[in-house]
Amino acid sequence: MRLRQPLAVTTYPSAERSEQPPVLLVHGFCSSARRAWLETGIVQALLDAGRTMLAPDLRGHGASPAPESAEEADAIASAQDLLAVVDAYDADRFDVLAYSLGARLVWELAESAPERIGRAVLGGMSPIEPFAAVDVAELRRAVRDEATPPADPLTGMIAGLIRAEGARADGLATCVEGLRGTPFAPKPWAGGTPPLFVVGTEDPMTRGAEDLVALAPGARLVAVAGDHHGVLVNRHFHGLAVQFLDR
To answer: Can you tell me the distance from the alpha carbon of 28 to that of 240, in angstroms, rounded to the nearest whole number?
Structure first.
């Protein structure tokens, strides 16, 4: 069996010795750990709170290797990638801050390792699988040929996001194919602690998030100002995350 290449991971260690577990940061689609967490100020907010963070780039994103097949990028394999990150750090338990696609993958991760996840903040999470309606063949064609956009506006929008990533484009299209093959059909939250859900007041992608809250008895849903991308730079979101993850 061919060994999968590990994800690229940036570790942000706390300046002070702490008994608290590390925080696993999981970014969204067409993003990276640097863009989602460092450049938005979230890393600094958690460092100020004395937390150590593990910030991987998802497969096909940032500095991580591109998937060699759709199976390497499906939801199950992606969750195992994340578990390998905390295993490499030798962390028995960990907290999570995840956004958008990252939150969806953490839901899968909780199925695999429910006893290891402590507190979880899940931001920008859609209750449905947005990639399920994507025409992968049309997506790949549109990524390579911008002149003729797909008839389907969703496929066209995702093609535009992927094209903007330059050399990463083919790998990101493979990520979409893998995620489309394992569509999100949420079971009840398997983690031991009910998560905190955070959505943007102007984010249509999170409509119906109440359905997810219902699958995690005791969970809270909080809305903050911003669209899907604006939430990440909202200091209110940062404060909510730090407060909830603080034990």
So the answer is: 19
Provide CB contacts within 8 A for 147, sequence distance 6+: none
User: Exposed (0-12), middle (13-18) or buried (19+): which is 3, by Cβ within 10 Å?
Assistant: exposed
Superfamily for domain range 9-128+184-245: Alpha/Beta hydrolase fold, catalytic domain (3.40.50.1820)
Domain ranges of the chain: 9-128+184-245, 132-182
**CA 42, CA 40: separation in Å to the nearest integer?**
6
**In Å, how far are 41, 94, 211, 245 from 242, measured between CA atoms?**
12, 14, 25, 5
Each residue's pLDDT tens digit, 208-230: 999 999 999 999 999 999 999 99
pLDDT tens sequence across 77-134: 999 999 999 999 999 999 999 999 999 999 999 999 999 999 999 999 999 998 999 9
